[in-house]
Design brief:
Organism: Eucalyptus globulus
Distance between the termini: 49 Å
Protein name: ABC transporter domain-containing protein
Family: Belongs to the ABC transporter superfamily. ABCA family. CPR flippase (TC 3.A.1.211) subfamily.
Keywords: ATP-binding, Membrane, Nucleotide-binding, Transmembrane, Transmembrane helix
Number of helices: 30
Number of strands: 28
Shape: elongated
Membrane topology: Multi-pass membrane protein
Length: about 950
């Protein structure tokens, strides 16, 4: 079909062939690629849309500093004036604060309906006390200190003098509120809402409610103050205090009685020379916005009460340590800003990036499931070029995908990308996609079904994002969680990705909120930044996973899998091969003499003689080849091939005939490297199939029983790829491809450039034959090559095989006796794992035929007369078939003449009715049936 290629294809020639094939395959799957890349585009656009909606809501007047139109000059014209005095609690955080207001410090006091009680009667009247628990080493001292905390009576004033006098007066009393504090204190909710303010006293009287005026900026806030009785209870230990607090906690069991305590004090070893106190406070009342610090604005008052009471214990009641006010830092006017890409990006972008994993995984498993990689390897593609090009191919696709993702996200203005240093992003994404590709190669070794791999791959995608967002992230944020366990969790590549994206999101969110930049290289040294450790983990895992993936691929490969210790083979001393061919064969516990036909024994002797010669020109030499499958589930071991010896010179087509299950496929599988022989070996072009299959593949062609083709590649592209693997180049390659297409009738009518997935079964079969013969291989294996072909295509295919066998040795299996007679120079009938006979078709028919087959159909009443007639013609005749008047006999050729048969039939017609009759020579099919039956009968008796 073309001039022979000069030697096997080099590493780079194979790599070039695979790269061209992959690029063509990628071009054909352009729609799939568009769908793949559109996912991050759509997601980014969705984030932009949501961001615009959020910005629209944030820009509403209700979220900006409050303003009013005021007549400042008395001329009837109003002027827009903005500031804290015109703002609600939600608005005040955005106002400019050159001189922030001073607010009285408050205790966090439970609302009356939640306060700790002995019975429910006080809840009906709203008079439940504000309870304080205390304990310590000295109860009497504790009693004194707690009594000093709560005044006997109120010193609040109802007038409105200057603000400083009011604050001093308020500081001398114990005020509290049930309102929740804010993260900021520009506007205290207790004085800017309908929530009441409580004054804690030792005993409330009937006139213990007040109204206090608080001057802030240009407005006066009038606040009603109600009395709350302060009740202090002693407990014997801190654990008892803790137990009471736990039992009354509001967010506990909803069926539990809510008995909230104001605070708990453990004075420990406090005495006149030492002040040591632990304070319990209820952190339920906080404004916690994720990573923002917890507001402790009302904890300071609890600390001040304990400190002030101790001062009074030492120096007397005239000495006080007042806590006058709390005040925020001044600040300019700000705007509410919320970056959705940073807030939600960690989860969403994890899904975007990790979705490449099932894409790579399914591609690798597809080649494995369809046996396409096996097909490529059997036509000369080495592991080195395959790994290099496949890895580079997936890396290129992943890099383009990520580049488009980052560029598009930056163009539409997502802060996640624009604020963080692009060089850090490049390094992080590049390392991760390499790790992801390596992991896909490793995981692909454990799957053989695309659907299963796809399901598992996408489960990993969504599970990684969800576990990262709702489990791993909380561990990262919890400063009390051991950092070592965080690193252990990051050993899972998905969590490494999530942690890196989390760090990008945090820096971009903070940068956007503060109006600064995101992550820079210098930030990697920050103690709270986990990016540095993530990069180190991913680099190490990338190299380790890639090595393990390659090792497992070499060991578990279905094509000539290597020994688990193959890495050390080069250091081992190689021993010369020795050939032992015993005349006895052991099967189970019995030993018996091998019963072989003379022709089979003669073939074995020829093989033994060839192996003793220093060199031979035989293309294939099989030496006592055996394959035994171990027994399973209580069944005995299966002998698939029993000591097969065979020698094929170049230019010979050897046909293997045999019933299903005879062992033909097992023999072919050993010869093409799919399975290893149990014992014995074979030599192809002088190379041992046990150790040099890679060298054998460079001069081998295979037409498998089932067509192994890429659905989206055309017939021409298939042949171009396999031709390059056979080292065909330039015009020689083009000519070889065209001749191959013409020879199998796939050249004309545009068929050559039609995708193989649109071929009929017969067209696929012809393409498979053309693939096996391109590049003039020295050895070709064809497994039922004409299956599914019409008579005209079959005859055309036979001519192709006849022409091809002039320069190569062909082993062909078939169930068509006509095909065997036309194509095969020699035939071997294979039954129960062993050759029963061997020779050319004429020899076999002469050896196992030697008789005519006489058939006659009469009424069943004349069967005996027909049998008597045949016995007169040939005393050695043997009836081989009888049913409903139809009988078939074997007549030895040396006992009968054809003319006598015709005469006997004519005479019989005059005596009884003859419906039909016939006389035929022995066919190859008869020989096959006879040999198979006799061999199976012998095996049953054995």
């Amino acid at each position: 079909m073309a001039e022979p290629a000069h030697g096997p294809a080099s590493f780079w020639t194979q790599a070039n062939a695979l790269l061209r094939k992959n690029l063509t395959f990628q071009k054909r799957n352009i729609k799939t690629n568009i769908r793949l890349i559109s996912f991050p585009f759509v997601l980014c656009l969705l984030l932009v849309l949501i961001q615009s909606l959020v910005n629209h809501e944030l820009n509403k007047a209700s979220n900006k500093c409050g303003c009013e139109c005021i007549d400042t000059n008395g001329d009837g014209q109003c002027e827009k004036v903005c500031g804290i005095q015109y703002s609600t609690i939600d608005q005040v955080g955005t106002c400019p604060m050159q001189n922030p207001p001073e607010w009285p410090p408050l205790l966090q006091i439970p609302a009356p309906q939640y306060r700790a009680v002995i019975n429910d009667s006080c809840r009906r009247t709203g008079s439940c006390p504000a309870t304080i628990l205390f304990t310590g080493n000295n109860q009497s001292l504790g009693e004194i200190l707690v009594q000093n905390m709560v005044p006997n009576s109120s010193t609040l004033i109802s007038s409105t003098p200057n603000s400083s006098d009011v604050l001093v007066s308020l500081a001398q009393n114990v005020l509290g509120s049930a309102s929740w504090p804010n993260l900021y204190n520009y506007l205290e909710p207790a004085f800017a809402s309908d929530q009441p303010v409580y004054e804690v006293q030792q005993q409330c009287t009937s006139n213990s409610s007040f109204s206090v005026a608080l001057q802030e900026s240009s407005i006066t806030l009038q606040q009603d103050v109600s009395c709350a009785q302060g009740l202090h209870l002693w407990k014997n230990s801190s654990s008892a205090v803790n137990d009471e607090l736990y039992k009354g906690y509001r967010k506990g069991n909803p069926e539990r009685q809510i008995n909230e305590i104001v605070a708990g004090y453990d004075f420990l070893n406090t005495n006149s020379n030492n002040f040591n106190v632990s304070i319990w406070y209820n952190s339920t009342y906080k404004n916690d916005t994720g990573n923002a610090p917890i507001s402790l604005l009302r904890v300071g008052r609890s600390v001040n009460l304990a400190s002030n009471s101790y001062i009074q214990f030492l120096l007397g009641p005239a000495t006080t340590m007042l806590f006058e006010f709390v005040k925020e830092m001044p600040k300019p006017e700000t705007e509410l800003r919320l970056d959705l890409s940073s807030l939600l990006g960690t989860l969403f972008f994890t899904w975007v990036i990790i979705q490449l994993f099932p894409v790579v995984l399914t591609s690798l498993v597809y080649e494995k499931e369809q046996k396409l990689r096996i097909m490529m390897k059997m036509h000369g593609l080495g592991d080195g070029p395959y790994w290099l090009i496949s890895y580079a191919y997936f890396l290129s696709i992943s890099s383009i995908y990520m580049l488009c993702f980052v560029i598009f996200g930056s163009v539409i203005g997502l802060k996640f990308f624009t604020l963080n240093d692009y060089s850090i992003q490049f390094v992080f994404y590049f390392i991760y996609i390499n790790l992801q590709i390596s992991l896909a190669f490793l995981v692909a070794a454990f799957f053989s079904n695309v659907k299963t791999a796809t399901v598992v791959g996408y489960i990993c995608v969504f599970a990684t994002g969800l576990l990262g967002g709702f489990l791993f992230q909380f561990f990262v944020q919890d400063t009390s969680f051991p950092r070592g366990w965080i690193i252990v969790m990051e050993l899972y590549p998905g969590f490494s990705l999530y942690r890196g994206l989390y760090e990008f999101a945090q820096y971009s969110f903070t940068g956007n909120f503060m109006g600064t930049h995101g992550m820079r290289w210098g930030d990697l040294s920050d103690s709270g930044n986990g990016m540095k450790e993530v990069l180190i983990i991913m680099v190490v895992e990338w190299l380790v996973v890639l090595f393990v993936a390659y090792y497992i691929d070499q060991v578990t490969s279905s094509v000539s899998g290597k020994s688990p210790m193959f890495l050390f083979d080069r250091f081992r001393k190689k021993h010369p091969s020795s050939f032992r061919r015993p005349s006895l064969r052991r099967q189970g516990s019995k030993v018996f003499v091998q019963m072989e036909k003379p022709d089979v024994s003669q073939e074995r002797e020829k093989v033994e003689q060839l192996l003793l010669e220093p060199s031979t020109d035989y293309a294939i030499v099989c030496d006592n080849l055996k394959k035994v499958y171990p027994g399973r589930d209580g069944n005995p071991e299966k002998f698939a091939v029993r000591g097969l010896s065979l020698a094929l010179p170049p230019g010979e087509c050897f046909g293997m005939l045999g019933p299903n299950g005879a062992g033909k496929t097992s023999f072919i599988s050993m010869m093409i490297g799919l399975t290893k022989p149990t014992s014995g070996t074979a030599y192809v072009q002088g190379l041992d199939i046990r150790t040099h299959m890679d060298g054998i593949y460079t001069s081998m062609g295979v037409c498998p029983q089932h067509d192994l083709l890429w659905e989206t590649l055309t017939g021409r592209e298939h042949l171009l790829f396999y031709g390059r693997l056979k080292n065909l180049k330039g015009s020689a390659l083009t000519q070889a491809v065209e001749e191959s297409l013409k020879s199998v009738n796939l050249f004309y009518g545009g068929v050559a450039d039609k995708q193989a997935g649109k071929y009929s079964g017969g067209m696929k079969r012809r393409l498979s034959v053309a693939i096996s013969l391109i590049g003039d291989p020295k050895v070709v294996y064809m497994d039922e090559p004409s299956t599914g072909l019409d008579p005209a295509s079959r005859n055309n295919l036979w001519n192709v095989v006849k022409h091809a066998k002039q320069d190569c040795a062909i082993i062909l299996t078939t169930h068509s006796m006509e095909e065997a007679e036309v194509l095969c120079d020699r035939l071997g009938i294979f039954v129960d794992g062993s050759l029963q006979c061997i020779g050319n078709p004429k020899e076999l028919k002469a050896r196992y035929g030697g008789s005519y087959v006489f058939t006659m159909t009469t009424p069943s009443t004349y069967e005996e007369e027909v049998e008597n007639m045949v016995q007169r013609l040939s005393p050695g005749a043997k009836r081989i078939y009888q049913i409903s008047g139809t009988q078939k006999f074997e007549l030895p050729k040396h006992e009968v003449k054809i003319a006598d048969v015709f005469q006997a039939v004519e005479n019989a017609k005059s005596r009884f009715t003859v419906h039909a009759w016939g006389l035929a020579d022995t066919t190859l099919e008869d020989v096959f049936i006879k040999v198979a039956r006799s061999a199976q009968a012998f095996n049953v008796l054995s």
